[in-house]
Design goal:
This protein is an alpha/beta fold. It has 17 helices and 15 strands. It has three domains: about 100 residues, no CATH class; about 120 residues, 2-Layer Sandwich (60s Ribosomal Protein L30, Chain: A); about 180 residues, 3-Layer(aba) Sandwich (Alpha/beta knot). The chain has a seven-stranded parallel beta sheet with strand order 11-10-9-14-12-15-13, sandwiched between helices. Strands 4-7-6-8-5 form a five-stranded mixed beta sheet. The chain has a three-stranded antiparallel beta sheet with strand order 2-1-3, with helices on one face. Strand 1 and strand 2 form a beta hairpin. Helix 13 packs parallel to helix 14 and helix 13 packs parallel to helix 17. The longest helix has 19 residues. It is globular and about 95 Å long. One of its GO terms (biological process) is RNA processing.
């Protein structure tokens, strides 16, 4: 409980409010009972109007200052009272500073307004029911209409009984050692451990249903169990699924997990460029079957014989890298080659921007750059790059054989491709744009270029 001391000037215009503990009221009353008040106030005029209640806030077991019959002597009083007197002296100094009529008022502060939490799904549905059907007796509650008192542990046990194939575990403590890789949130550290984080249900669907990558574990909010029940049953046997409350998830991850689930996937080994090219060349149509499994409509079937690659040099923005992966998968690319200076496609931000395309589209990292571009040319690839040069052609003029091998080479925004990389380019193209505009975001330019290459008319062999 606190009070406030209000110092008023004679014209009642300005006020100085000093909040002090309510316990000081007894000390203030003590000063009123002694002649020391006028000495301490100096030239501050009296009267000093105090509360009528006296000594109400004196600590239990302590002697009231008001019971003293003689002058105040701090050495003979309790230490606690001495501290209270020192605090009151600070208040008196403020009162003295504001000369004029002084008024001291002790009031109990107004309690803070407590905001009423939003109603849960169960509460909203409960209030919207027909009153004649409000009783739950004799009927089974829907899965999303569960009583609030049902504990998470009971819900997890119930889910486990319905889906015994799912390896479900309830985590109650954020320091549980099974979550240590989730708590190691730094992408570079996870990379050294050979794993990476996947967020949201949509990307987890690609990881489990489409990608060939291994799902190491899943961490999720119990509220997402019902919506993900079918997906969880598709997990390989003995893949752990950890369930924990939102508060624990936030402490582990370092941020609020709004999508309700995260997953941990194992990184595949990166092949040398020569082995990578041999692998994707021996798997014609892999990207088409993947796109069909994703539920997409294959509109590039007439040109599916073309082997399209994307090559990136020194792209450091994870949003751009992820966006290019997404476009590459959409337009039928069979793989991606990264220079040593490119950001990791498995960083969380890249995976989000790619909407999981980097989990499906194979990629590798060139170890000898830009010499590895020569390997592409030796394997029959035509290197195409966006560049404003005297020899650049309009993108609409592109034409390739139906079975052509094409590699679209992309440089970072600003500097573009290095001079060393440009020496290996076969075809320079440019995107026609309005007057006064000479560039696009690299992810946007990549999408336009990939569509142009994938749908370019067939030339004679």
């Amino acid at each position: 409980m606190q009070g406030k001391v209000v110092a008023e000037r004679p014209n009642h215009e300005a006020r100085k409010v000093v909040r002090v503990p309510e316990a000081l009221k007894s000390v203030a009353d003590f000063f009123l009972a002694n002649t020391l008040l006028s000495e301490r106030l100096g030239d501050v005029q009296v009267p000093l109007a105090m509360s009528d209640a006296r000594c109400q806030a004196m600590p239990v077991g302590e002697q009231s200052a008001c019971s003293s019959s003689g002058p105040f002597d701090p050495e003979t009083e309790n230490d606690l009272l001495g501290v209270m007197v020192a605090q009151l002296e600070q208040v008196l100094r403020v009162i003295k500073k504001h000369r004029g009529r002084v008024k001291a008022v002790f009031k109990e502060p107004k309690p803070r307004e407590i905001r009423k939490p939003k109603a849960s799904i169960y509460q909203r549905q409960k209030h919207n029911r027909d009153p004649l059907e409000s009783s739950t007796e004799g009927r089974q509650l829907p899965q999303n209409d569960r009583p609030e008192e049902l504990e998470t542990a009971e819900y997890v046990d119930e889910f486990q009984l319905k889906h015994p194939a799912v390896d479900l575990s309830l985590i109650k403590d954020f320091s549980d050692e099974r979550l240590i890789e989730y708590a190691t949130i730094g992408d570079p550290i996870l990379k050294d451990k050979g794993v990476f984080i996947v967020e949201s249900q949509n990307i987890l669907k690609r990881l489990i249903r489409v990608s060939t990558l291994e799902t190491k574990s899943i961490l999720m909010d119990p509220r997402a169990l019902d919506s993900m029940s079918d997906l969880l049953q598709e997990l390989p046997e003995h893949t752990p699924v950890y369930v924990s409350q939102q508060e624990v998830l936030a402490k582990v991850m370092g941020y609020t997990v709004h999508r309700g689930c995260v997953g941990l996937a194992k990184r595949p080994p990166l092949l040398p460029v020569a082995d990578f090219l041999a692998g994707i060349s021996g798997l014609p149509g892999v990207e088409l079957s993947s796109r069909k499994r994703l539920g997409g409509v294959d509109t590039l079937e007439a040109h599916s014989g073309r082997q399209l690659l994307v090559v990136m040099e020194n792209l450091g923005n994870p949003d751009n890298v992820g966006g290019i992966f997404r476009s590459a998968l959409a337009f039928g690319a069979r793989g991606v080659i990264l220079s040593p200076g490119c950001t990791d496609p498995f960083y969380r931000k890249s995976v989000r921007a790619a909407m999981g395309s980097s989990l499906v589209l194979p990629f590798t990292r060139a170890q000898e750059w830009p010499r590895d571009l020569l390997l592409l040319k030796r394997n029959g690839y035509t290197l195409v790059a966006l560049a404003i040069t005297p020899t650049a052609i309009d993108m609409s003029e592109l034409a390739f054989a139906a079975s052509a091998k094409v590699a679209l080479v992309l440089g970072a925004e600003g500097p573009g491709l290095s001079e060393e990389a440009l020496e290996h380019i076969d075809v320079h193209v440019e995107i026609p744009m309005a007057k006064g505009v000479d560039s696009l975001n690299v992810a946007v330019a990549a999408a336009i270029s990939l569509h142009a290459v994938a749908t370019a008319p067939c030339s004679s062999e």
